[in-house]
Amino acid sequence: MRYATIIIMAALSVLICTAAFADIMPVRSFTERQPKTHNANPWGLVYADAITENLPGQVNIHPITYELNGITIAANVYTPAGYDPSGKYPAVTVAHPNGGVKEQVAGLFAQKLAEAGYITVAADAAFQGESGGLPRHTDIPFFRTEDIHGMVDLLSIYPGVDVNRIGMLGICGGGGYTLNAAKSEKRIKSVATLSMFNTGRVRREGYMSSQIGDIQARLKQASEARAEVVANGSEASSGTVDFDALTDEAIEAIANDLYREGMKYYGKTHRHPNSTFEYTRSSLTELMTWDATDNLKLINVPLLMMAGSVADSLYLTEDAIEKATGTNDKELYLIPGAFHIQTYYVPEYVEQEVNKLKEFFGRTL
């Protein structure tokens, strides 16, 4: 009887594990989509010098959707000038910041890399932007990491992509999730980040370790938010900002550069209706127990980490690259005089970053 029980338990374990992994459904196809726009740009792009029409022989943008783990993901694929679907091009995934969308800085770098000859993809995270998923604004590391694996899936079947030359770029929070994906994603040959933001550490400790003293209280609030969903089917959100009510004086009064410059970028200069700092409070139950730098030694491919030299978020990049002991080919590249958000759009900084990326991916892909 004892051995029969053991066998039954073992069989149940296999079934449970199989069921859990059955929910992970890689991307196997994609379809064209009609983008929603809110401005003069036909694709809703808000960055400088964005594509306004697809012209023969030039960089083109291809709005698509694909299914990832039962969620419809909205993405933009950028193809280089003279793109030939039967060719063999290097390719790069571009993951957007927390609260950002594909039409902002992720799109800018996707376009710039396409201009350099790469096929690139920028996708809205699940539960955010034009992508599907409920409840909206869920921000859980598993899904954000899967978003990046899904972009690699997509590139691996996209016409013209050389599957042996795929790289990753992650920006801000997308940088932390890109590092996490790169630990296990062995289809990629190199990984780069810009102004990397370790979302788990910051949600746990507070920005610049400003909330270490109330970690347990905030975890309790997150658990209570989940209980609220059980009881009422809804919950309060965190990070909600009324950009319309935000005055220039209020912005300038913000002490740290990340949030001060972020309010300008997301609320004023590069505003997009799908871009919000909001996230479900229950997401903190996962975010606060996660860290982008756990097991970072598993990354064994070339690593480039770029950040502003005076950004108050620099400590996050410095911590990560120090822990990336699994590769000897790694570099911390500083943009002199740049704050965190300024690395997203200031022309002189973007030019430096794109040139560095072209050098890095040119060598590693």
In short:
This protein has about 375 residues and is α/β, with parallel strands linked by helices.
Order of helices and strands: HEEEEHEHEHEHHEHHEHEHEH
Coarse morphology: globular
Helix content: 25-40%
- Order of adjacent strands in the largest pleated sheet: 1-2-3-5-4-6-7-10-11
Description of the structure:
The chain is an alpha/beta fold and 365 residues long. The protein has one domain: Rossmann fold. Helix content is 37%, strand content 18%. The protein has helices at 2-22, 105-115, 141-157, 173-184, 199-205, 215-232, 248-252, 257-269, 284-287, 314-323, 347-364, and strands at 31-32, 60-68, 71-79, 89-95, 119-123, 161-171, 190-194, 237-238, 279-280, 303-308, 330-335. The strands form 2 sheets. Strands 1-2-3-5-4-6-7-10-11 form a 9-stranded mixed β-sheet, sandwiched between helices. Helix 4 (173-184) links the parallel strand 6 and strand 7. Helix 3 crosses helix 4 (173-184). The radius of gyration is 21 Å and the shape is globular. Residues 1-22 have low confidence and may be disordered.
What is the fold's blueprint, element by element?
Layout: H1 2-22, E1 31-32, E2 60-68, E3 71-79, E4 89-95, H2 105-115, E5 119-123, H3 141-157, E6 161-171, H4 173-184, E7 190-194, H5 199-205, H6 215-232, E8 237-238, H7 248-252, H8 257-269, E9 279-280, H9 284-287, E10 303-308, H10 314-323, E11 330-335, H11 347-364
Parallel strand pairs: 4-5, 4-6, 6-7, 7-10, 10-11
Antiparallel strand pairs: 1-2, 2-3, 3-5, 8-9
Helix pairs in contact: 3-4
